[in-house]
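Good day; I would like, with your permission, to put a structural problem before you. A protein sequence and the structure tokens that stand for its backbone fold form the material at issue. The record follows directly beneath this note:
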Amino acid sequence: MPTDHRPVHKNPLNQAAARSFYALTGSLPLIRWLAPGAALLFITSCGGGPTSSVIETPQTRGLKGWEKPYIVAGQRYDPLRQHEGYVEEGIASWYGRDFHGRKTSNGEIYDMHAMTAAHKTLPLGIFVKVRHLGNGREIVVRLNDRGPFVKGRVIDLSYSAARRLGIDDAGTGPVRIEALGYREKGNGGAPVYRPPASYVVGSYAVQVGAFEAPVNAHRLAAEMRDRFGAATVSEGWAGGRRFHRVWVGRFDTLEAAEIARLRLERNGYPSSFVVALE
């Protein structure tokens, strides 16, 4: 492996903030209203760099750290609870010696020589098939980390995985990834894959804004009702201050709410996010 090869996180802010957010120490708590009872916990990286954060709500209690929504460099990510049919194309990258021996997002020790990888939202612990769209090579890796937090990149491979796929020298390559599931031994010892738990049915909305002045919140809610059919204003407190939050829609599954959030994002509301309702 080239000693000076660092192809993965070229943005040092993303690099320091993103890797192993679940295992980081030296936390600095800060409350920001996201949902009923929600808190945003900012965690300072071990290297003293910028922060990543995990979103805490009553609905996320009991979940593992890597299963909870989180924010890196201002971007919110909502880990999936299921993977069936998940296929994605984009750029694969890899990370190696700089992170070798450090904790990954699920608490394991990163081994650059193991066949593992990082993904921003797929369930950790599942296996995914990665196919290089240029040379046709295929590998299967187990997800144990979060990333890559660079635009256009869809998976971060270990050094060994990158070498087998043929991107260790170039640093990146075009790939298609397919989620397989948790690996188990089938009849005859051949591996089979089972899915993780499906989406939890609940009640969700999409928050598009929060204002101290109620008139601003009600103005935006009226606009949302005209454009999207349903919107409400909900009051909440954070840091001793009252906020009026604008929520769009009411959805029975997280998946449906996420589809609505993407629609709102495409229609000029890039900072919108899903909230769980009581």
About this structure: The chain has three domains: 12-77, 87-194, 201-276.
